[in-house]
Amino acid sequence: SDTVVEPYNATLSVHQLVENSDETFCIDNEALYDICFRTLKLNTPTYGDLNHLVSAVMSGITTCLRFPGQLNADLRKLAVNM
């Protein structure tokens, strides 16, 4: 069962994430399913539904990097401000 190993995977991966990445967005699968059930009213969400949620989140986070405007930033500023 995945449930048994999830805490171990999360705990063991944190060190690698801290050491080898500048920015990391950890998204919980249960939270995605909860959004699908409660907010989007989907009885049986698919991986496509979950991927759509993740892509919407990442699109929203990086909007200021992709479009011109006063609030433009680069990835370094984004990492500092988060």
From TrEMBL:
GO MF assignments: GTP binding; GTPase activity; structural constituent of cytoskeleton
Organism: Cetraspora pellucida
Entry keyword set: Cytoplasm, Cytoskeleton, GTP-binding, Microtubule, Nucleotide-binding
Positions of transmembrane segments: none
Signal peptide: none
Keyword Cytoplasm among record annotations: yes
Family: Belongs to the tubulin family.
Major subcellular location class: cytoplasm
Gene Ontology CC terms, in alphabetical order: microtubule
Location(s) in or outside the cell: Cytoplasm, Cytoskeleton
The protein's name: Beta-tubulin
